[in-house]
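Hi W.,

Here's what went into the run:
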Amino acid sequence: MELLRDNNWVLTIGTFLPMVGVLIMLFIPKADEVAHKAVALATAVATLAVGVWTLVLFDYGQAEKLQFVADAEWISIIKSSYLIGLDGISLPMYFLSMVVTVLVMIYSWDHIPNPGNPKAFLILMLILQTGMAGTFIAQDLVLFFVFFEVVLLPMYFMIGVWGGEQRQYASLKFFLYTMFGSALMLVAFLALFFKTGAESFAIPYLVENGASIARNTQIWIFAGMFIGFAVKVPMFPFHTWLPDAHTQAPTQGSVILAAILLKLGTYGFIRIAIPVLPEAAKEWAPWIGLLAVIGIIYGALGCLAQTDMKRLIAFSSVAHMGFVMLGISTLTPFGFNAALFGMVAHGLITGMLFFVAGSVKERYHTLEIKRLSGMLKQVPRLGWIMGFCAMASLGLPGLAGFWGEFPAILSAYSPAEGLPEETFRTFMVIAAIGTVFAAGYLLWLYQRTAFGEPSAEFSGHDHGHGDGHDDIHDVTKFEWIAWTPLLISIVVFGVYPQLMFDVLDPAVKATLAVFGG
Amino acid sequence: MVAESDWVNPTIDYHALAPEIVLAAGIVVVLLVDLFTSEANKWLVAPLASFSLLGAFIPVVTLALSDNTMRELFDGRYVVDEFSLVIKGLFILAGYVVVLISTDYLREGDYYQGEYWFLVLTSILGMVMMASSRDLVSIFVALEFLSIPAYMLAAWRKRDVKSNEAGVKYYLLGVFASAIMLYGMSLLYGIADSTLLTEIGETLSDEMTSIRALAVLFVIIGFAFKVSAVPFHTWAPDTYEGAPTPVTAFLSVASKAAGFVALVTVLYVAFPYASDVWQPVIWILSALTMTVGNVLALRQTNIVRMLAYSSISQGGFILMPLAVAGEGTVGQSALRAVVVYLMLYAATNLGVFAIVIAVARKTRSGEISSYGGLFSYAPGLAALMTIFMASLAGIPPLGGWFGKFAAFQAVLSAETNWGYAIAVIGAVNSVVAFGYYGNVLREIWMRPAPDGDTAPVVIQPAIAVALGITALATLVLGTLPGIVSHFGDLASLSSAFGG
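Here's what came out:
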């Protein structure tokens, strides 16, 4: 594969710039909270600026090739190097991670969750940003593994320290699940390394040589990676950490988790597992498809049973990631495109939904669906935004969600050559039913919380509760600044999806070239 | 045989022996100064001890930089090569950190000071000798040299029953292990008619009889005690808990590393052709050690006991690559994994103990629950402890991950089913380990301070320096492991495997 090496400083700076902010913040006393917020925000904005510059420099005519490639010596003794690069598949996720971090930083300006301490909170967020961006640019398995793991600890603390009632349980569960997955993934990576002649951990090299591994061995190695990535996605039946983590995490944590961290798993399938082990991928594809559609239906049914708004959104993530995995399991360019689009769309929409949920919680001090109602009357703008996101999430044409979901279903109609057509068509039908459920639970949620009259409990402080509900106010300035970019992107990508498909498609076709197709 | 030939004065390469000579001189000076100073000036001895360690480090560096990288003394019974230099450097630096974390602990605890430094230096001298020994006699002498002071150090809190128990247990099981090993060594001498490791290796290459296998087994079991491999680990938790904390740090890092160095030397130089005998043994020891250590660590409520079991479990990971070290060309990468692991483990674990000492000075407790709320009143210590715990758990980009990575890599490079099996056991164990490391982090970050006591922790300068060294090593070696990994590229020792 040809590698483009121009401007290769841009990725390194974009990835490690947050660490500069961390270093500065370490020397600012804890009490100076405004300074911390300012430095963190400035760092995130500067990082995003580098991201924008990356978008400008990116050669869209050659989106299928790795660009900005840098290859420096790192751990030469184990033949691992600092090999980074970006193609059309990584670019959207890489950039999205930077956008989301900036928005979350803005949101954090007046929303530092209990027990406070913005210094630690924001430092963790910046470390998280480095880990996320690094995962999307790493083109060496060891480097990928390191970045993949870097996000673990900050998230663990974010949930465990700034989370809800059950935070300690949720954070540990999150950690152990992911760590278990990545331990097996690491063993799989090493087995891959030795089976390809112990020459290199570089992904481009492995893509060229992985296909020569014996079929049975491929299947075993794929199994190890599958567990690592499937836990992260999360796929049914490895999903049980997700509802707890999401529900307990602070708003910022939930947004980053939904928007970026889950995508590390699907990205791993697309970037590593499938192109490196094509034979095994074909063998595994029907099973992945099966688990994906189980996830879709299970997630939807789970949603219908929830009484907590955040938990419901978390379960909807399981369903949505099911669509993404279904697209991936078809092993077709069409399915991959849908999956990648779905990843970004889900990031935008579900991230936004978690923002809304966080703001609802902040105002009403509860997320219990039963107790909320009449948001449209009481906080009309927040109510409308929530309606908009619900529509986007259920896949309304014209909004971004549609282009992730619909093509994914469609792609199952004709999976790649050699995959059982009937099976995948059955999956298609089941997935289509899943969309009906999605409309069901989202509309039901919206109807119960936004329609009707505000409940007496929250309709004012003149009811003698004494605790007062003065803080039930509509969308604030910082929320507007943080949310508008997401809302606009949801519309823009909904109306003109070509914008992203143009970047994705060449890279997807190049990735799937291993299937001779 | 020596007895038959005329005595020839051996030519001595004083440069090669310089680290040992400097240390020996330091020991003498420490002893004399301690004898002739008044009680009020005993503090003088501690800086002397650290100077002699730093002084001994200089020749290690000059030897490493010299062109002659293979110096054989006394007919190859004492060898100064890259491997031994790296290990000597490790022992000396680890010893230096131990001195740093002991200084204030000793002064405030009202212990005998002069003798303490004397014994620590003596034990380090034993370790440094161990790194070069290539002969059964010199290995045994070095082993006793490093162990006997350690027995006394473990019982240093004279009026504390637990400390006495620690010393006695350590002593009894230690001599028991030595006896088993000596028996094995006597069999080896009988078989090979030589105490030189290389000659034993050659003899063992022809045929493996049951008596030979027994000799190999006994020697390995002797070392298994030293490295506290399960089921020979029972002394470790009690000794670690009862001994003064700096001594525990010393035992769990330096003394353990010395055991591994001896084991590796014997396996690689004397037993390369007996790998069919020792590979299964090490495999079982490794699997048992990491699993049992982990499971028991999960149940501990005292931080030092937890660290004791954690160190047992880490020992299992260090043994792991040796379980397949005899396969093809694995020897080289297995040796590298062991050396790299020992270095990263030493840096991290010494850091952990430095924090344990600093925190215990305030809380006066060894319970894990006493770490509650540390993050709220001592964020710096909390952040460092997080770094160290994450490193022990093997989470990138903190030092420890590369040790685990190197171990996995070595094991999988064997491409045997035994290798795959132990890799999976290791992978599962590395996850389980987070259960107890994460537990400490949970106390630090997520629990309130016990009794609402949030008075800040005072960190003494010596501890601060120790923390600085260990944290820097943990972070830098984790992000740029290339620095240490070429230390592990030690051709001379693993050449026996045809590598």
